[in-house]
Every structure is written in structure tokens, then in C-alpha cells.
Amino acid sequence: MTERHSIVSTRGPQPTATYPHAVVEGGYVWATAQAGRDPSNGEMVEGGLEGQLERAISNLEAILADCGSSLDRVVKTMVMVVGDPQESLIDAVFARRFPNLPARTIFGVAFLAAEPGHEAVQIQLDCVASLA
Amino acid sequence: MKNDDAITIDKAPIPRGPYVHARKHGGLVWVTGQIGRDAKTGDFVKGGFEAEFNQAIDNLEEILKASGSGLDRVVRAQIEFVEEKDLEAMNRIYGERFKEPFPARTSFGVAFLWKGAKVQIDCVAAVDD
After folding, report:
1. Which residues in chain B come in under a pLDDT of 70?
2. Minimum distance, in Å, between the CA of residue B91 and any CA atom of chain A
3. Tell me, what's the ipTM?
């Protein structure tokens, strides 16, 4: 069993409060929820919900890689959406980005305020991924 | 599933439904969402968001201790809160109560919480088998 460690990746947007990008424990990577922020400047990306979801998944991908895991080892993801659910759009992005479909919980939230520029955050997702 | 993996204690508000305070499995303990209810009276503590959040973390801490874990071994925390204006207080109190190495964290706003709570927190933590 790998000893617990935390990751703040240079390839994900820098955390804005007291949390790392991910914790590795018990054979799993536990990733903090990611929004569609550009890692280079912390700004929300253009492209509406689809652009934000693509970027958020790319942020997770980089964080998982730095932890020794990957998107195809995601066991479970939780997706939080503000406003119009745009289900078919989200499903299309998921099908394209997750070659190995994870268990998924998705729901609408009242607001997503955990990141700066939060008025523009439409979606965020976190995940648990295996190391093996 | 062995039933002795389940943990329910009297130092946190007793469950008011068909759930336990926590279950242990595979070196991890999975803790039920805690709100700012006093363990003895079951009533919400007075003092608004900050008091409720501190009490919820107190409850979480007692459950973790009874499970052979602790706040310093939390792997992932999830926080739900009702009013966006409480974001700053949430981040501040969280930063006071949790120490490095901090857990992974997901937080979001919800339409309502059980019994009118302002904030709720659950977690997964490491535990010795």
C-alpha cells in the first residue's frame, strides 16, 4: 500500500483554499473537484458548459497523471451542474473523454462558489481513481 | 458484511434515520454527513453558520476518533452549504480546523439541507484495520 501523500500539480489550476489537488491513500487517488479554469492563469475558459467540462476533465487528467493514475482508472465521478442540465452535451463529452466509463453521480446544485470567478462556473467534477 | 464495521456513538447527534455514523472498510472509514446539532440535546447550536460548521466538524471529529482515525487522517471531505455568502466563513473555519496535509475537498451549494441546517460535512478517512 502506498503511503498517504498529497499532490498539488503544476498542471492544474492552483487551489484557492486549504486543499490539495488530490490525496493518494488506500490504493486510490481522491481528487478535489475541478472546474473549467485554465491552469496557466486561473481564469475560466471560454466555450460555455462544454468548454468548461472539457477543461475540468483535462485538469483532472493532469492531476491523476501526477499521482500515477489516469482517466481510464477513474472508479467514480461526481458531477455538479448549475442551471440547464444539458444532459446530452455532458454525456457526449463523457463518452469521448472517459474511455473506460466510471460510475457516475450527477446532480444540479444551487451554486458553485469554491473557485474565483465563481459567477461563471457552470460545472465541476471530482473523482476517485485507482492506482493499479 | 460484518456488522462490527459499523460505528455509532453517543458523542455525536444520534442518527435520526436508517443510517450509522460511520462504516469501516478496507483501511478507510466512511462518515455520514454531519450538521451543527449538539450531541447531547440534538438541537442546532446557536450562532449561525460559523457555530454550526464548527459543531459539525466537532461531531465528525468524535466519530473519527471513535473509529480509530482523526481529522488529520481525512482523505476527502465534502461540504454542502445553503447560502453563497457563507463561502468565506466556510473556507476560513475549514482552514482553522483542518491541518496539513489537507484532504481533497469538494464543496457546493444546495437548495436545502435536512432540518434546516446551514452546512453539512462528510468525509472518508484512513484508519488502522
Report:
1. 1-4
2. 6
3. 0.91
